[in-house]
Amino acid sequence: MVDTQRAAQGAFAQFVRHAVDAAHEEQGWSIRQVAARSGVGRSTVFRWLSGDWEHHPELPKVRAFCAALDLPLGAALRALTPLAHTTSPPDAPVTDPATEALLVAVRDRLVDPRTTAAEREHIRAALCRLARPRSSRAG
Fold first, then answer.
1. pTM for this prediction
2. Does the residue 46 lie in any domain?
3. Contacts of 35-44 spanning 24+ positions with Cβ under 8 A
4. What is the domain count for the chain?
């Protein structure tokens, strides 16, 4: 087994653990209930939690898991490809460190399974307002 696969297994196991813990804390769901509500087998959820799989989890199962727990699919996919988001994109704009830290914090909050759907929507709405072009009226 290559290091990349081990890293993916560990990162995805951590993602699933946070998601299951959040479902338990917020909804009172057990692993059995998470499995039933997502349509993912209980043994599969346990394999994901332990990082014990040979082939990447099937996308339809990951999608169903995320949908049942109101999680962004992108967060699961980033966990499954941990090296893909550790390198900077080419020609990334240079910003000051304080701004960069805020952007990272917002991104992390959006993908954190403990962030509620309402909080994610509030963050997205604020980002949309900030991203709108300024009015040409001076005032």
1. 0.60
2. yes
3. 37/68, 38/64, 38/65, 38/67, 38/68, 38/69, 39/64, 39/68, 40/64, 40/65
4. 1
